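Researcher: Re-running this chain for the archive, since the previous output was lost when a drive failed. Same request as before.
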Amino acid sequence: MQPNKLTRLAILSLIALLRSAQGETFAPLKYEIVLDKPFCHDDGNFIWFHPRVSPFPGADGAPNVLMTFQKHLHQSDYYSGLSYIATTNLGKTWSERKEPRVLAWREEAGGRIVVGVCDVTPGWHEPAGKVIAIGVKVRYLDGIQQEDTPGWHEAAYAVYDPEQDSWTDWRMIEMPDREGKFYSVAPGCTQWVVEADGTILLPIYFRGADHGLAVVTVLRCSFDGETLAYLEHGDEIPIDVARGAHEPSIAKFKGKYYLTIRNDEKGYVTSGADGLHYDPIIPWTFNDGEELGSYNTQQHWLTHSDGLFLVYTRRGADNDHIMRNRAPLFIAQVDPDRLRVLRETERVLIPERGAQMGNFGATAINAKESWVTVAEGMWGEARERGAEGCVFVARVIWDRPNKAIEP
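Model: Regenerated structure tokens:
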């Protein structure tokens, strides 16, 4: 082992001992990062965007992996229908891309309005044996999102049957008070949790008919293999800054629930005992008290039975040339009691090449590894600095089994 690696391990071990002496239980979890590039595309017409993955059981018991993504049409928040590929060998090879007609745009108002679904996150629902892809219904006129009717944003989902390699069409979660409180509902770019009883904890952000600031809450939904249905929702969490609270993601770690929330000025975090009710939110900081510096973009979780991790972008990484400092992608372990990012554990997960990487996904694949997926946003000086419009898969390979995942 190289001397610098020995030094780093010694420092981390000393920190762990000091924390233990102070009554803390934190111990750094080791892992290897393997970076793959399934494909690249940059023809000036579109780039592939929002790649996110879900495992599902393969014939030999090893996980297959489904990746969903869509075209970004070089206009702000303007996306095509959904495409997907799959791998049966943990990314060594991938299938050809498929673009099911049931997941494509549809037309309204005589073709003047096109309706699609964006910001999609797929996930495996073990009790039903299906993958559910959850995103946000949007209505476009000349590429611009329309806000003119109740439900201009709706919680949309489609169901994938691995045995048939088939999808349902897009369906909407039926919400209460659609013309009032839940005038606009968006589970955009969110991580969600399947409970032991098969119900789903789905974070959303919503706006009322007054078009005020967005508010975050968590829905509890049932799923019978076909229909995703609203049962109740939890605390309503506002942020009275800029556009409000957006793009929440939930994680479950050692029986407790953790929620990270996007805001224009800074990211926020909270935790709770039941997935619906939470302590007051606090800004994300490092364990030395300094603000994390992640703002106006997503943060997502990776969970291991022995550690809770945050994936994020931030200021202060020689990255002011990147829009909203959205690259590189960092990963660090989180103190689950104090809700702070442990600075000494921070690592670059996906390096910066001039492209923004703020729209990403994070998912456990099996007991050995978890994946973070992202596509390069080809704006500004991205090409001049080396970006190629690539989709990246960062495989986080743990040094010990993740006992929260079935082998």
